[in-house]
Amino acid sequence: MAILEPLLQDVDVREYKGRFRVQLEIPKSSTLTERDLDRVGALSSWEVNPVTAENYEGGRSVIVSSLISTLSEIALANSIH
Questions:
Q1: Residue range 14-45, pLDDT digits in tens
Q2: For residues 15 and 47, what is the distance between their CA atoms, to the nearest angstrom?
Q3: Which among 40, 47, 76, 81 is least surrounded, fewest beta carbons within 10 Å?
Q4: Is residue 3 part of a domain?
Q5: Structural domain contains residue 39
Q6: Could you tell me if residue 54 is inside a domain?
Q7: Residue 21: how many CA atoms within 13 Å on its side-chain side?
Q8: Dihedral angle sign, alpha carbons of residues 27, 34, 2, 46
Q9: DSSP letter for each residue of 35-77
């Protein structure tokens, strides 16, 4: 169950519980992978301590790997093959 009503319609809502409860609202068009979403959720909720996490950059940034970052790049990659 969502912590709050989503701000937008037609989004996937995920809740993460660590030191804090965090609700992520992910648009259907998101290109983030399941692993990326879980990483953001774990770090933002402090389920995983951001200071000791792998690839810690400091501040409030979260590094996610991006093989193909946009839908246009996906289309381009599909047209090449």
A1: 999 999 999 999 998 888 888 888 888 888 89
A2: 12
A3: 81
A4: no
A5: yes
A6: yes
A7: 6
A8: negative
A9: HHHHHHHHHHTTSS-TTTSTT--STT------SS-SHHHHHHH
